[in-house]
Amino acid sequence: MKVKKAVIPAAGLGTRFLPATKSMPKEMLPIIDTPVIQYVVEEAIASGIEDIIIITGRGKRAIEDYFDESPELEMHLAKKHQTDMLKLVRDISSLVDIHYIRQKEPNGLGDAVLRAENHIGNEPFAVLLGDDIIVNSQPCTAQLIDNFEKYGRSTIAVEEVPYEKLSSYGIIKGRPLEDLLYILEDIVEKPAPEAAPSNIGAIGRYVFTPEIFDCIKEAGSGVGNEIQLTDGIRVLNQSQTIYACKFRGKRFDTGDRLGYVKAILDFALENDTLRDDVLEYLGEVLASQTPAPEAQAKEK
Question: Is the pTM above the cut of 0.70?
Answer without folding.
Answer: yes
